[in-house]
Amino acid sequence: MQTETKSQPTKGIRQLAEHLNISIGTVSRALNGKPDVNQETRRRVLAAAEELGYVANQSGRSLRQGETKVIGLMIESSKETVENADNFFLGVTSGLQSVFARHKLDLIMLPCPSDEDPHEYLKRMVARRIVDAMIISDTQRVDRRIDFLSRAKIPFVALGRSLSAGNFPWIDLDFEGVADHAVKRLIALGHRRIAITAPSSEANLGYLFIDSYRRALERHDIPFDPSLVIRVRSSEQGGYQAAHELLLLEERPTAVILIYELMAIGLYRRLMESGVMPGRDLAVIGFRDAPRARFLQPSLSCFRISLYDLGVALGRMLLATMPAYRQFYPGGDRNIIWPLELMAGESDAFDVGAMV
Amino acid sequence: MQTETKSQPTKGIRQLAEHLNISIGTVSRALNGKPDVNQETRRRVLAAAEELGYVANQSGRSLRQGETKVIGLMIESSKETVENADNFFLGVTSGLQSVFARHKLDLIMLPCPSDEDPHEYLKRMVARRIVDAMIISDTQRVDRRIDFLSRAKIPFVALGRSLSAGNFPWIDLDFEGVADHAVKRLIALGHRRIAITAPSSEANLGYLFIDSYRRALERHDIPFDPSLVIRVRSSEQGGYQAAHELLLLEERPTAVILIYELMAIGLYRRLMESGVMPGRDLAVIGFRDAPRARFLQPSLSCFRISLYDLGVALGRMLLATMPAYRQFYPGGDRNIIWPLELMAGESDAFDVGAMV
DNA sequence: ACGCACTCCGTAAACGTTTACGACTGTATG
DNA sequence: CATACAGTCGTAAACGTTTACGGAGTGCGT
């Protein structure tokens, strides 16, 4: 005849009902805020649930309702992503969660193993019904995940454009604006030969970035020179290599635009090894800043982005596509070009006209 | 009279059974590799499942079996973590997944919102039965999560020691070894005043690091000077500030040990602003390297760690605590002190004895 | 002809929820 | 007094699996 132990979580709603001498139906209704339950009863149920530490089993609930109240953020743990090392996703995550929390939705991150096809991984995850909706990133030029999600009618939003599947919701960075701003700025400082780095992967981002760069140049009557597009990994190592290749060019450019700001570390290193001083002999502008850009020597001029705000926008756009939540987010755009703001530093703060 | 559309995923095992004209029990057994099913039948089932794109609904399965086949990796998306920006977790993730994949376990990352109590968050997640087991990190000095998981008998492993709950499985970095190695090395180069940076949070890591440092000093008959412990954030900004404080000390140290290698960026910057050259006027040794340390100027001497291997060890240790998988990982340690290897760079490559 | 072992498969219960439906009060309305 | 209605609550079905159990068929030895 031992007294009840309240240390472990309850066995389920049944036990809770039994403890209260009412039916499980009423308990469920009380917990879920359904209307037809007496105020006093509801109070008792909530109190007992709190006391016994009852939390609804998600499997049972999901099975019954056909939804999991979980949103998945798919990220690729590729070597490239790990090397970028800017905690990009963690930053976005906070913004996402601030939106989801209002609707009692949980966010989980789904890291696709590097040896698994992202498309297969995604299919597996949604088929298992672990999540109700998806946020995907690192969109490829043609991305089968987008076709799949569209056809399967899984709510989703992409961080990044793609050529796939007509009209899907996405947010992407304003490469056009960035390239235009950077080029215009450099030209005003007297530069004519402006190099750019781009990733060698199939990510759409690289294509868009280069296209924008090319158009920005042409708008200013500067011919596009393919040899000024340096294809390297987006890491410190890549930056080092990019500088190496820049130094080998017959007619050396006077400026370079980096697609990831961290590359500047390696780039600076290699330049200095050859006695070329960034911010004096070569202008450098970075992209997708993390605050660290301020602390490089010389400090990096760099396009900054608020990851939190980006996350909020992504979250809202996603919920707007889900019937159950659409009402809360009316009239938002289905596609957003996300603007970036230039934080001026010392790395391009000189007039090349004075040189030569 | 339209032909069947195979575009969307199947409605369930029932539909699949019906399509094959056999019972759902047999289908389930065939799919799960149970013994008592005819070879030919199994083949047909698997083929049909493939063709119709059937994947078992996880909710139904979890409900029946009481397990989810999902392991959770809890991470804190605190400002501090985002600032560290070393993609530490993504690195560990690959190692974990390589272990879990063998057992068809999936790994999800659970980012605890910064405005939610980690303990509450964890409770919510395991109560909802979203995961079978947990990997937690950023262990605090006293960490209620550990007591909770132990009492609730949820399999888990911690990345980081803690004073909480007697004997739980963990892996932690070899602070003792690192401090000893660094101090010994610096002393051999003639240093006597060696500073160190530590986080200001309640994370156990900071305490352990400082303790090890203190003991290493005392072992070499150097008195511990509290003013040489610089408490700053573990970011570039923190590095900048640390350098600032170092420069203000009446008797300036000749060496400094950084708890995060990224801090070196800000540190270098601040030093150079005052004409102090790292690697010549001040020795710098970093901790917990990312490869980027090699590309700083001067390159950072730094303790390196293989995140992948660490992930593998964590995964194995976790499975060893789970009854269903224990057999595959016999005789492993329940606690591991993870060694780090010093990658010598230029940042401490000078003999301070020659100075003064 | 019978029993037995073995292989294969169908039946149905169970997992923990939510929810449509109906039953039971008490009270207001005609 | 009959009826309607609102407020509560209990009952039972349903969600998609897995699995214990038993039955049907076959082959084989006696």
Report what the structure shows.
The structure is a homodimer of 356-residue chains. With 356 residues, chain A is of the alpha/beta class. In chain A, 40% of the residues lie in helices and 15% in strands. Chain A contains 13 helices and twelve strands. In chain A, the strands form two sheets. Chain A has a six-stranded parallel sheet, with helices on both faces. A six-stranded mixed sheet of chain A has the order 7-6-8-9-10-12, sandwiched between helices. In chain A, strand 6 (194-198), helix 10 and strand 7 (229-231) form a beta-alpha-beta unit. Chain A is elongated, with a radius of gyration of 26 Å. The model of chain A is unreliable at 1-8 (pLDDT under 50). Chains A and B meet through helix 4, helix 5, helix 6, strand 2 and helix 7 of A and helix 4, helix 5, helix 6, strand 2 and helix 7 of B. Chains A, B: It comes from Rhizobium aouanii. Chains A, B: This is Substrate-binding domain-containing protein. Chains A, B: Residues 11-65 form the HTH lacI-type domain.
